[in-house]
Amino acid sequence: MNDKIKIVIDGKEYWTELGKTILDAAKDNGIFIPSLCHVEGVKAAGSCRICNVKVNGRNMTACSTPVAEGMTIVNNIPELEELRKAIVEVMFVAGNHFCPACEKSGNCELQALGYRFLMLVPRFPYEFPDKGVNAESKYIYHDRNRCILCKRCVRTVIKDGKHVFALNSRGGEHIHIKIDTELASQLTEEEAQAAMDICPVGAILKKERGYYDPIGERKYDKQPIGSEIENK
Ligand code: FES
After folding, report:
1. Fewer beta carbons below 10 Å: N end or C end of the chain?
2. For residue 49, how far is its CA from the centre of ligand 1 (angstroms)?
3. CA 12 → CA 8, 29, 55, 57, 64, distances in Å?
4. Bridge partners, 130 (sequence order)
């Protein structure tokens, strides 16, 4: 039997279970906390920081912080909304996110969060990175210039027990995700599609057929991000 506990989010009490993270407990109770690097069922990376909430006055990542009996969490306040919006804006200017021309438009979580946070003009200068693309593998087109370093691909795209994507080890400004093209070429079309789907932006695209669903009829064209949790 699971251990039921009570937590408080934005002043209201909710039931949840020990062992859950704040992110999952909130989701179970119809509360949306934005996330980008999180993948359900996979160990948290805690790298994007967009899921920051306040626990006892301190900023904590909701995806990696387990709930505890009586925990008091603050989620929906202007300070956190502003922080999350700033994180999204920084990601936008740090990468080449040309939404109108991107195959991921409408299915892109970063774009959807930009809409949610009413992002308009950039406050930070565009970086227009030139980190290169890799189109050598059979089904995958990998554009590092759009990568937000969430490491979802590193943690989940595995072929025959080996990781197709890895974080390069040089660090600093050269940090990027590299693809094992030989291994990536062994992915089936379905596996390549799954790799594209796990990427929250347009850094991993499946080659060959594009724009299968017309712009305007894609996931976040139909409903804003978070509404699937808030309206359930
Ligand atoms: Fe929690 Fe990225 S979703 S740090």
Report:
1. N
2. 5
3. 5, 11, 14, 16, 22
4. none
Residue 7: strand, helix, or coil: strand
Question: How many angstroms does the Cα of residue 23 sit away from the middle of ligand 1?
Answer: 9
List, for residues 140-164, the tens digit of each pLDDT value: 999 999 999 999 999 999 999 999 9
- Residue nearest atom 3 of ligand 1, based on CA coordinates: 35
Q: Give residue for tokens 């989940």.
A: 156
The pTM (predicted TM-score) of the whole model is 0.94
Q: How many residues does the chain have?
A: 232
51 touches ligand 1 (CB under 6 Å): yes
3-class SS letters over the chain: CCCEEEEEECCEEEEEECCCEHHHHHHHCCCCCCCCCCCCCCCCCCCCCCCEEEECCEEEECCCCECCCCCEEECCCHHHHHHHHHHHHHHHHHCCCCHHHCCCCCCCHHHHHHHHCCCCCCCCCCCCCCCCEECCCCCEEEEHHHCCCCCHHHHHCEECCEECEEECCCCHHHCCEEECHHHHCCCCHHHHHHHHHHCCCCCEEECCCCCCCCCCCCHHHHCCCCHHHHCC
Residue with tokens 């020990």: 18
Q: Rounded mean pLDDT of 205-220?
A: 88
Q: Which domains does the chain possess?
A: 4-76 (3.10.20.740), 85-211 (no CATH)
- Tell me the average pLDDT across 106-115: 97
Q: And the tokens for 33?
A: 């906390």
Q: Which pLDDT does position 223 carry in this prediction? A: 95
